[in-house]
Amino acid sequence: MIKVLFVCHGNICRSTMAEFVMKELVRQRGIADLFYIASAATSREEIGNDTHWGTKEKLREQGIPFTKRKAVQITKADYEAYDYIVGFDRENDYEIRRICGPDDDGKVYSLLSFAGLDREVADPWYTGNFDKTYEDVDMGCRALLAYILQNK
């Protein structure tokens, strides 16, 4: 089983969007049983809260199913449990390493790096632009899935 954890600041916008997009991509390919996909936060600010309404709205618009959930924080144990720990910006990357320790096994990635881009996925909590975030998340998840399938 390939285990992917998406991690953003609060676990209500970008990471949940990526979680549900990736789940739909593997479902469409008929390979969902090969994956365990989840999301988490680096902060404790939104712990217990459901997905942001703007993310839900964008997922509905795109026909991507989602479920009710509660934000959780990444733990040191998650580093051992997951094969891919995927952040969205430099702050996420820093905080993942602060919580989990050094990335000795090379499991921590930036989502857009899979698409060959060296830039961050903007946080729609601050920008209000869920459309742009979705475009980046969809592109990144598709590239991540292609990378995983080529390297498994």
UniProtKB/TrEMBL annotation:
GO terms for molecular function: protein tyrosine phosphatase activity. InterPro entries: LMW_PTPase, Ptyr_pPase, Ptyr_pPase_sf, Tyr_phospatase_low_mol_wt. The keyword Amino-acid biosynthesis does not apply. The active site is at C8 (nucleophile), R14, D123 (proton donor). The keyword Metal-binding does not apply. Pfam families: LMWPc. Signal peptide: none annotated. It catalyses: O-phospho-L-tyrosyl-[protein] + H2O = L-tyrosyl-[protein] + phosphate. Its EC number is 3.1.3.48. Residues 2-147 form the Phosphotyrosine protein phosphatase I domain. Keywords: Hydrolase, Protein phosphatase. Belongs to the low molecular weight phosphotyrosine protein phosphatase family. This is protein-tyrosine-phosphatase. It comes from Megasphaera stantonii.
